[in-house]
Amino acid sequence: MKVGVLALQGGWAAHIQAARALGHDAGPVRTAAELAACDGLILPGGESTTHLKLIDRFDLKGALDGHVAAGKPVLATCAGLILSARAVTHPAQASFGWLDVTVARNAWGRQVHSFEATADGSDLPLVFIRAPRILDLGPGVEVTHTFEGEPVGVRQGPFWGVAFHPELTADQRVHAQVFGRP
Ligand code: GLN
């Protein structure tokens, strides 16, 4: 599958490596034309406020909306999850509403409190870097991963959002769940 990674800011390069390691044809996306050529999309971690500004500056909102509306698969991680949420708190900021969740920014601790753990009932490694907490979910959203009983991964049809960073581990399961194994 051709998987585009939004490459305006943040941790996009590791996602390209992860998707390629799975066997996908992955590359950076910085224009609407590049996105239109993709079957799947990854919204990486980074700084969501900066992402908002750059998406506006590069005029990518329409193309991103179009990808989501077409029902093509998306994996949104950390800052990508924040951008995708219906509502954002701590502090409140604009978001695109592709995923029917409310998230609180930086609510799993500050940068110095970044940590690694494993998902509840699984050996799936979870890397948290100033990660958002998922505060509530709409009726169409299913929980895919939990940590200490709280949702840290969710899915609404083909749109997946995780608070952690699967691209920073060698474990391919999250990317494989979203995009399959070619
Ligand atoms: N704290 C960041 C934000 O609010 C997200 C952190 C991350 O993506 N690792 O955008």
In short:
The protein has 182 residues and is α/β, with parallel strands linked by helices. It has helices spanning 12-21, 32-36, 48-57, 61-69, 79-84, 173-179, and strands at residues 2-6, 25-29, 40-43, 74-77, 85-89, 99-104, 115-118, 125-128, 133-137, 142-147, 150-156, 159-162.
How would you sum up this structure, described in words?
The protein is of the alpha/beta class and 182 residues long. It has a single domain (2-179), classed as Class I glutamine amidotransferase (GATase) domain (Rossmann fold, 3-Layer(aba) Sandwich). Helices cover 26% and strands 32% of the residues. It is built from six helices and twelve strands. The strands form three sheets. It has a seven-stranded mixed β-sheet with strand order 2-1-3-4-12-11-10. A three-stranded mixed β-sheet has the order 5-6-9. Strands 7-8 form a two-stranded antiparallel sheet. Strand 1 (2-6), helix 1 and strand 2 form a beta-alpha-beta unit. The structure holds glutamine. Glutamine binds next to helix 5.
Q: Tell me about the largest β-sheet.
A: 7 strands, mixed
Count all strands and give the number: 12
Query: CATH-wise, what's the superfamily?
Result: Class I glutamine amidotransferase (GATase) domain
Q: Order of strands side by side in the largest beta sheet?
A: 2-1-3-4-12-11-10
Task: List descriptors.
three-stranded mixed beta sheet; 182 residues; alpha/beta; Rossmann fold; seven-stranded mixed beta sheet; single chain
Write the layout of secondary structure elements.
Blueprint: E1 2-6, H1 12-21, E2 25-29, H2 32-36, E3 40-43, H3 48-57, H4 61-69, E4 74-77, H5 79-84, E5 85-89, E6 99-104, E7 115-118, E8 125-128, E9 133-137, E10 142-147, E11 150-156, E12 159-162, H6 173-179
Parallel strand pairs: 1-2, 1-3, 3-4, 4-12, 5-6
Antiparallel strand pairs: 6-9, 7-8, 10-11, 11-12
The site of glutamine has 11 residues, from helix 5.
